[in-house]
Amino acid sequence: MEQKKDIRKRILKKRSQLSEKLWEEYSASIATLLISHPIFEEAEIVYGYMPIRNEVDTLPILEEAFRLHKKVALPKVLSKTEMQFFEVESFQELTPGAYGILEPQTEHPAMAEEGLMLMPGACFDRELHRIGYGGGYYDRFLEAHPHFTTAALAFTLQCLEQIPWDPHDIRPEYLFTEQEIRSRT
């Protein structure tokens, strides 16, 4: 079986070749599916992320959470092994941080131990195993905070039949693509 790093590289290259038109169209479809799903509707706090390198556009999802007066928390990388989420009330509270990703300026950590956690990733399979970007940030965070409802956002081109995984890899409960919602529950 192909190694994680090789799969990651291959799939990220495919994702980077997605046209802007398709990226916008697919991202909008994914946002619509998530926003109308009970896991979003019932969430009091949404732990999101700022999209990079042609990831699914999370901005419409986060904007809808702000509009509905839900709490929104975004990650900040604190070290090579740790990230923490901080509550924000608008995108104006963000500045470029680690890896050039927009991060919260605030020093008010999000304290909720449950809510909706949106997970990025490079690749997923039918069993919702996930290959991230290799840093292990989400695996470590969710291992320490296991009570979140987890939902990954990805384009169908990022989905394979089977990928290698390790016991410490955290699988999302849901995967939203432009074509379907997959669930392991």
Automatic annotation (TrEMBL):
<feature type="binding site">
    <location>
        <begin position="130"/>
        <end position="138"/>
    </location>
    <ligand>
        <name>ATP</name>
    </ligand>
</feature>
<dbReference type="GO" id="GO:0035999">
    <property type="term" value="P:tetrahydrofolate interconversion"/>
</dbReference>
<keyword id="KW-0460">Magnesium</keyword>
<feature type="binding site">
    <location>
        <position position="55"/>
    </location>
    <ligand>
        <name>substrate</name>
    </ligand>
</feature>
<dbReference type="GO" id="GO:0005524">
    <property type="term" value="F:ATP binding"/>
</dbReference>
<dbReference type="GO" id="GO:0046872">
    <property type="term" value="F:metal ion binding"/>
</dbReference>
<keyword id="KW-0436">Ligase</keyword>
<dbReference type="InterPro" id="IPR002698">
    <property type="entry name" value="FTHF_cligase"/>
</dbReference>
<feature type="binding site">
    <location>
        <begin position="4"/>
        <end position="8"/>
    </location>
    <ligand>
        <name>ATP</name>
    </ligand>
</feature>
<protein>
    <recommendedName>
        <fullName>5-formyltetrahydrofolate cyclo-ligase</fullName>
        <ecNumber>6.3.3.2</ecNumber>
    </recommendedName>
</protein>
<keyword id="KW-0067">ATP-binding</keyword>
<dbReference type="InterPro" id="IPR024185">
    <property type="entry name" value="FTHF_cligase-like_sf"/>
</dbReference>
<dbReference type="GO" id="GO:0030272">
    <property type="term" value="F:5-formyltetrahydrofolate cyclo-ligase activity"/>
</dbReference>
<keyword id="KW-0547">Nucleotide-binding</keyword>
<feature type="binding site">
    <location>
        <position position="50"/>
    </location>
    <ligand>
        <name>substrate</name>
    </ligand>
</feature>
<dbReference type="InterPro" id="IPR037171">
    <property type="entry name" value="NagB/RpiA_transferase-like"/>
</dbReference>
<keyword id="KW-0479">Metal-binding</keyword>
<dbReference type="Pfam" id="PF01812">
    <property type="entry name" value="5-FTHF_cyc-lig"/>
</dbReference>
<dbReference type="GO" id="GO:0009396">
    <property type="term" value="P:folic acid-containing compound biosynthetic process"/>
</dbReference>
<comment type="similarity">
    <text>Belongs to the 5-formyltetrahydrofolate cyclo-ligase family.</text>
</comment>
